[in-house]
Hints:
Elements lengths: L2 H15 L5 H18 L4 H36 L8 E6 L5 H13 L3 E6 L5 E6 L5 H19 L1
Antiparallel strand pairs: 1-3, 2-3
Helix pairs in contact: 1-2, 3-5, 4-5
Amino acid sequence: MNVLLSNLVLALIWAALTDTMNAGGLVIGFFIGYLVLVLVFRQHPDVRQYRLRVPRMFSFVVFFTKELIMANLKVAYDVLTPIHLMKPGVIAMPLRAESDLEITMLANAISLTPGSLSLDVSSDRKVLYVHVMYLHNEEDVMNELKRMETKILRVMR
Length: 157
């Protein structure tokens, strides 16, 4: 049973029946479909895993949106003011992500955030090389990247 696909179908059905085929209608339909699946099929093992994954996914979306806004503001401030705060550098981030999908999701999330860019993954897939614009304190940057990796792994696993 593909629970995510079932939830998306229920969201589309909801949006079609209520004549709200927009983002708001789909989000409400997704939430209602989630509740229906969790309540009706609560004993199914796939639904038990899915029940935990959706709140984690929502938490990641909120976290990533906040990070995206803060990074945009920091880069915009640096571009618009005469004082440049940039100190670019490349760091080697040890990975806890193991699968190709987990590594790809992390690398894309890092690259989507202004001021950072995923460069390469080591051949043994244990290290991700990241270029950052603000490498004033490598430990702080590493902690931010590790926090993003932890959030992604909570959704993916």
